[in-house]
Design a protein that fits this description.
Bound molecules: guanosine-5'-monophosphate
Number of strands: 9
Largest sheet: 6 strands, mixed
Order of helices and strands: EHEHEEEHEEEE
Radius of gyration: 16 Å
Helix content: 10-25%
Strand order of the largest sheet: 4-3-2-5-6-7
CATH topology: Rossmann fold
Length: 170
């Protein structure tokens, strides 16, 4: 079993998520329906803690996507679990664990925009900005991190370590 070092403590995560929830409440104060989408599986812990702290009414949904990168870096996403609600004319907030190259979120945003929502924004727990190859940035982010492979708080290594209460690295 690999030794995991603590990278971001759970108290710090909690603090940042509280700040983020307040910001979201404020930014969508005068908006209509807000659909908050959890991207399975990595975002589950972040999503649950964030949505419990958002005070306004939201509609919740879950999607599961996987991304594949071809030899010439032409990526596309495979939708394993699709939307269960109609997002036409609604504000949409995607909640994802981490943005790395940005390919997954670029493709996902394009897919959601094809359904004519009012807006699509992105909230991530972690941003590896140094790895970005796509012209995309999250609208909300808890922590910008260096190029480390992180696990815990929903993030896995080979489906393990998701249940660590902190973010660690191997
Ligand atoms: P992107 O399409 O932005 O390159 O990749 C995003 C996906 O890569 C994330 O949803 C996540 O599944 C995976 N990923 C990227 N970096 C890490 C990491 O440090 N740890 C884990 N567990 N997954 C990562």
């Amino acid at each position: 079993m690999e030794k995991i070092k603590v990278y971001i403590e759970k108290e710090k995560i909690d603090e940042k998520i509280s700040e983020l929830a307040k910001k979201i409440d404020n930014d969508y104060k005068s908006s209509g329906d807000l659909v908050v989408i959890c991207i399975l599986k990595g975002a589950v812990y972040f999503y649950c803690d964030l949505t419990k702290k958002i005070k306004r009414n939201i509609t919740e949904d879950f999607m599961k996507v996987s991304s594949y990168v071809g030899k010439e870096s032409t990526g596309f996403i495979n939708i394993n679990v699709d939307l269960g609600v109609d997002i036409e004319n609604k504000d949409v907030l995607i909640v994802e664990d981490i943005i790395d190259t940005g390919l997954t979120l670029t493709r996902l945003k394009d897919y959601l925009n094809s359904k004519n929502p009012n807006s699509v924004k992105i909230a991530v727990l972690l941003d590896k900005k140094c790895k970005r190859t796509q012209n995309i940035d999250p609208d909300y982010c808890c922590f910008e991190i260096e190029d480390k492979f992180v696990v815990g708080y929903g993030l896995d290594y080979d489906e393990k370590y998701r249940n660590l209460p902190y973010i660690g690295y191997i």
